[in-house]
Amino acid sequence: MNKDVKNFLIKIYRSLRIFKYSFLSNNRNKEGNYTAHQPVLSNGLGRLVFGSNVNFGVINSPKFYSSYAYIEARTQNATITFGDNVHINNACSIISEKQITIANNVLIGYNCQIADSDFHDLNKNNRLQTDPFPQEVIVSENVFIGNNVTILKGVVIGANTVVANGSIVTKSFPENVIIGGVPAKILKDL
Fold first, then answer.
1. So what's the pLDDT on residue 122?
2. TM spans, by residue (predicted)?
3. Is 106 exposed, middle or buried (0-12, 13-18, 19+ CB in 10 A)?
4. Radius of gyration (Cα) for the chain, nearest Å?
5. How many domains does the chain have?
6. Which end of the chain is more exposed for a tag (fewer CB within 10 A), N or C?
7. What is the domain extent for residue 132?
């Protein structure tokens, strides 16, 4: 197949996927804009705030054609804020019942999850109820999050910190460190 024809067909395919997920999205409470290189499904009753130069998806990275970004500000009081120059790789999931803030100049690897809630009450007698205690998540400026990372409720990641691939972040960390592991711990000062 001619290279130009192939590139044209790929561009049409990408555009149709992005349109489909945009059409399926039900969150209409957005401030600012983002660039979708990969489909973004945005749901929920809360606010989504985008700074300048926010990008979803990386063409030359795994899961580009087989996944999408999922962003949900689940409740009316929930807010997800993206600062300026935020770049998010493929297949991310960011779900808030309270507040998630991703500051300026943050890089997020593919297949990452950020949540400020357990989503269900952990008490066995109330398991079908929503989490009564969501806790804010803050990813500070210039943080680099590797691939396959999970960040749980109540976490604050300090500025300039690097989160190693495959980490599960269950507690807060200061600025200027490399963290990694399950659960994450400080591996090195920067």
1. 84
2. none
3. buried
4. 17
5. 1
6. N
7. 3-189
